[in-house]
């Protein structure tokens, strides 16, 4: 082997480790739930985005047949490429067999991720791709019931690790909002940040949603429905998903973030009030208290940066339950955002 060739191999050995160690970004890895996992490489990025796809074994529907007062529940098969929600007219058997009015609700589950070390959750979005809708007026008209327009709603629910007919009315943590109110084809997006954080703090395996119309059926023997793409749809675009955006704290070390919190709450559980206390070299900028529906029920804006303890008194209208305190503090010249769980007795 001549001298020039030896020098070439030596140069490759020097350059390759430097190149491989300085790649930054997200490294995808397959995980349970037909979702894409993330690995955070060094140096730390300001934000990372994780797209989480639905758990196929929990992508399900529960229907109610009005005429027979019966329920049916099933998980979507690989051949079910669409999600159907609403009021359907169905004929069983060969005409002139009777027509039945059937109300259908749909259910989706998404795995809960571990928050990457040194990051906080900035926002979480629930996304469905709408393909089609139908009403008494015909194709591509958004449904109406008894002549009244109703939004398609999403509730934060818990139906466990399997679907049953009783899940037509599952354990329900409240309505998040409307996922669709028009016939426009394309992505429909709903913020579910508070609900995702609640499930993180409750150590749940999944965040689960029920998609439904508030009216089950209007007895008109006509389809009033909205259709979305399921995770089994052949297109690579449009599968049900939640998108989690993490933001780097980027002002204190990973050790401080994980093992030396800057904000403390006491007493917790509490009743009439809770005290928010911050460490030295830290000041509270603002704090917002959210209920499980994601609604802000109390807001604090701090002006006195020297005060280390702030008492948050609860109004009589605040009910017992679980709340999330989202706060902003300033530490070592940098603003940090965090979230803590509060239990009100």
Fold and architecture overview:
This protein is mainly beta and 345 residues long. The chain has 2 domains: 29-247; 250-344, Sandwich (Immunoglobulin-like), CATH 2.60.40. Helices cover 10% and strands 48% of the residues. The protein has 3 helices and 24 strands. The chain has helices at residues 3-21, 193-201, 254-259; strands at 29-31, 35-37, 47-53, 60-65, 70-75, 82-91, 99-111, 119-135, 138-139, 144-145, 148-149, 152-158, 171-180, 186-191, 206-212, 224-229, 241-248, 263-266, 273-278, 282-290, 296-301, 309-313, 321-331, 334-344. Strands 3, 4, 5, 6, 7, 8, 9, 12, 13, 14, 15, 16 and 17 form a 13-stranded antiparallel β-sheet that branches. A 4-stranded antiparallel β-sheet has the order 21-20-23-24. A 3-stranded antiparallel β-sheet has the order 18-19-22, with no helix packed on it. Strand 6 (82-91) and strand 7 (99-111) form a beta hairpin. It is elongated and about 80 Å long.
What descriptive keywords fit this protein?
single chain; 345 residues; mainly beta; Immunoglobulin-like; 2 domains; 13-stranded antiparallel sheet; four-stranded antiparallel sheet; 24 strands; 10% helix
């Amino acid at each position: 082997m001549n001298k020039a060739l030896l020098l070439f191999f030596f140069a490759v050995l020097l350059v390759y480790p430097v190149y491989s160690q300085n790649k930054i970004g997200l490294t995808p890895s397959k995980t349970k739930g037909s979702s894409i996992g993330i690995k955070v490489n060094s140096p730390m990025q300001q934000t990372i985005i994780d797209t989480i796809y639905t758990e196929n074994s929990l992508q399900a529907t529960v229907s109610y047949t009005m005429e027979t007062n019966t329920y049916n529940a099933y998980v979507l098969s690989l051949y079910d490429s669409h999600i159907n929600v609403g009021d359907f007219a169905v004929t069983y058997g060969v005409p002139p067999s009777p027509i039945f009015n059937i109300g259908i609700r749909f259910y989706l589950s998404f795995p809960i991720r571990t928050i990457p070390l040194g990051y906080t959750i900035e926002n979480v979005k629930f996304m469905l791709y709408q393909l089609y809708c139908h009403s008494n007026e015909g194709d591509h008209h958004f449904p109406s019931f008894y002549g009244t327009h109703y939004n398609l709603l999403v509730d934060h629910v818990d139906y466990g690790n399997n679907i049953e007919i009783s899940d037509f009315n599952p354990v329900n943590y409240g309505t998040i909002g409307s996922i669709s109110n028009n016939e426009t084809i394309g992505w429909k997006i709903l913020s579910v940040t508070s609900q995702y954080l609640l499930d993180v703090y409750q150590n749940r395996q999944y965040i689960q949603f029920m998609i439904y119309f508030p009216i089950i059926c209007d007895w008109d023997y006509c389809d009033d429905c909205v259709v979305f793409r399921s995770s089994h749809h052949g297109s690579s675009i449009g599968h049900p998903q939640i998108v989690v955006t993490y933001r780097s704290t980027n002002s204190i070390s990973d050790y401080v973030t994980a093992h030396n919190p800057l904000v403390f709450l006491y007493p917790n559980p509490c009743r009439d009030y809770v005290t928010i206390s911050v460490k030295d070299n830290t000041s509270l900028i603002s704090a917002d208290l959210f209920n499980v529906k994601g609604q802000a029920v109390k807001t604090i804006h701090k002006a006195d940066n020297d005060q280390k303890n702030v008492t948050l008194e609860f109004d009589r209208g605040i009910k017992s339950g679980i709340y999330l305190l989202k706060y902003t503090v300033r530490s070592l010249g940098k603003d940090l955002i965090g979230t803590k769980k509060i239990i009100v007795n």
